[in-house]
Design goal:
CATH class of the largest domain: Alpha Beta
Strand order of the largest sheet: 28-27-26-25-31-30-29
Number of helices: 8
Structural class: alpha+beta
Distance between the termini: 33 Å
CATH superfamily of the largest domain: Glycosidases
CATH topology of the largest domain: TIM Barrel
Oligomer: single chain
Number of strands: 31
CATH architecture of the largest domain: Alpha-Beta Barrel
């Protein structure tokens, strides 16, 4: 694998903030089920006495974990020994979890460290005070998950058996666990905002440990390069725990236009080296990257940089046969991205899953557009509002820097807000999420309820699994009637919730297709097809009908692969094409 980044580390779990020294804690852990949830009272954190092993980061439900038990267990425990070298003296020891579903409790050497709630956001703990330097340390993790529909669960079933388009649950650790050693004052986060019109990038640094250690004489050196060429280097004195730096990227070294924008056709990325110094000496060095791109809405078009972009998206739920939600490898991530591009799509709608940061890294590198969608709750109430809001904002912060992400999608098909069509409280909830997202990210469009019953979305997205292109074309020929809520475009679903209406936004058909073969066990949308010829005829019919609608500026086909009982993928679950990939590409790229 190649990259133009000067700091790429294979399998590194946080490509947006890289330190050279880290320790991967994936692999064999001791494991124990706790169905009666007696472990905490029984002080299992003082020594687990496990009865089996598990391969982290794969959940016990998967074959790759070494267990492969798909039944529901509400509480699981993990334990392993970790060596912390004596050379870590004077540094902080940070333990990172990229994702654990759903509630996590951590002990180190029997000492309680902390808790985290949420199954999709990354989190970390400072375990310095609990570890023994130069020796072995016992890491104990308790993860609890429930069948509650008030927690964001996405496509995870809440019944004993899978049903419809809901699949086997994901319990416990499902992304990388890792450890690093940092200076007491260190760079903990950086928010990078490209400002294409100004020719600059804005950096907002957050420093960990500021105020708890000696902070006199601190400075931050920000160095931007493109393809190895120095663009700009700025050193800034540090007086607070949050530091803002503007860096001009206008430089003749990148060519006559002096700026290299990021675009799917040329995903140019700038590399950044960030050095925190004390009295002129480096105490922390991290690496990142950014893309100079602007995404905005202008009338009924989505504008990327200075031109409208027609989005050819592929719905992608990010499941694998033996590992479920967890990517089996970085090579598997690349295979999905490469096949998506080879099929003639220029983007993905990551459906009901917050994807592994390594996937987003490679989308940034390869120029694949991403809609980032929050896994849904399925009941509305105070608990659901609180849980959803907290985790959504965690995710937006963590994924903000990725140039490939061009759209935020907090809600899908009224899931979790089932009465949004008429219920003012649920409508206000979606409005609040819209405005919270905009408060943190003013650039990207926000689709508050993908599919139907929109409130204040920046893009009006519609779902329609019509089988025949002619029928789809007829249904959507009268734009004014459709967007005036004169008729339901999908069974009994209308484009807008009561009290809302069309304000000239772009329109995208963001779910359609879902074609399955009769030979497959499981289900797809509509009547199944028998031959490749039938498949391609139907695919071309509905796809071309959408492309022929003059007011529609994109589509999203369901879906890239089969997922468990849902067998409507262009690829099988093991990523084998069901139909000729070049034929699909030709249809997608046809005007």
């Amino acid at each position: 694998m190649t990259t133009n980044s000067h700091k790429y580390i294979k399998d590194y779990p946080r490509p947006q903030l890289v330190r050279e020294q880290w320790e991967n804690l994936n692999g064999q852990w001791d494991f124990r089920f706790d169905d009666s949830q007696e472990g905490e009272l029984g002080r299992w954190y003082e020594g687990l006495q496990a009865d089996r092993k598990i391969t982290v980061p794969f959940t016990y439900e998967t074959k790759a974990s070494g267990i492969g038990d798909e039944s529901f267990h509400p509480c699981v425990w993990y334990e392993r020994s970790v060596s912390v070298p004596a050379e870590a003296a004077g540094k902080r020891v940070i333990l990172h979890f990229q994702a654990v579903d759903y509630e996590t409790t951590l002990w180190v050497n029997g000492r309680h460290i902390g808790n985290h709630e949420g199954g999709y956001a990354a989190f970390s703990f400072d375990i310095t005070e609990a570890v023994k330097l130069g020796g072995e340390n016992r890491i104990t993790v308790r993860a609890t998950d429930s069948s509650s529909c008030t927690q964001p669960r996405g496509k995870q079933r809440w019944t004993p058996n899978s049903f419809g388009c809901w699949y086997v649950q994901t319990t416990g650790i499902w992304q990388t666990v890792w450890m690093e050693f940092v200076h007491p004052v260190h760079i903990s986060r950086v928010k990078i905002t490209p400002e294409l019109e100004r020719g600059s990038a804005n950096f907002i640094y957050e420093l960990g440990g500021f105020g708890t250690a000696d902070v006199d004489g601190l400075s931050l050196l920000t160095t931007v390069r493109f393809d190895g060429k120095l663009i700009r280097s700025i050193e800034t004195n540090v007086e607070r725990g949050t530091v803002a730096v503007d860096v001009s990227v206008v430089n003749e070294a990148v060519g006559e236009w002096k700026i290299r924008p990021w675009h799917p056709n040329h995903p140019a990325l700038y590399d950044v080296e960030m050095i925190l110094k004390k009295d002129g000496q480096p105490i922390d060095t991290v690496y990142s990257y950014f893309g100079m791109r602007n995404i905005r809405i202008a009338g009924n078009q989505v504008i990327l940089n200075h031109s409208p972009i027609y989005q050819r998206l592929l719905l992608d739920q990010g499941y694998w046969e033996d590992t479920h939600l967890t990517p089996p490898s970085e090579e598997a991530i690349l295979e999905d991205i490469d096949k998506t591009l080879a099929l003639g799509f220029n983007g993905v709608r990551k459906h009901q899953k917050l994807e592994d940061p390594r996937y987003l890294y490679w989308c940034d590198r390869k120029g694949l557009l991403v809609w980032s969608e929050m896994p849904s709750t399925f009941e509305f109430g105070d608990d659901a509002v609180e849980r959803f809001t907290k985790e959504w904002m965690e995710v937006v912060r963590q994924h903000y820097n990725h140039p490939s992400i061009i759209t935020w999608v907090p809600f899908n098909e009224s899931w979790g807000v089932s009465d949004i069509a008429t219920n003012r409280k649920q409508q206000q909830f979606t409005e609040s999420i819209y405005h919270l997202t905009k408060a943190f990210d003013q650039m990207r469009p926000v689709i508050v309820n993908d599919g139907w019953e929109h409130t204040i979305s920046d893009i009006i997205t519609l779902h329609d699994y019509e089988e025949l292109g002619a029928d789809l074309a007829e249904r959507y020929q009268d734009k004014e009637a459709l967007l005036s809520n004169d008729f339901a475009h999908n069974k009994n679903r209308y484009p807008f919730a009561q009290g809302y209406g069309y304000r000239g936004q772009p329109v995208i058909i963001s779910e359609y297709g879902g074609i399955a073969f009769t030979s497959e066990e499981g289900w797809g949308y509509g009547n199944q097809v028998r031959t490749e010829e039938e498949f391609l005829k139907r695919y071309e019919g509905v796809t071309q009908a959408i492309k022929d609608l003059p007011y529609v500026c994109g589509f999203c086909y369901t879906q890239i692969t089969d997922v468990q009982q849902e067998v409507n993928g262009l690829l099988t679950i093991d990523r084998q094409p069901k139909v000729n990939m070049e034929a699909i590409r030709s249809i997608n790229l046809k005007k």
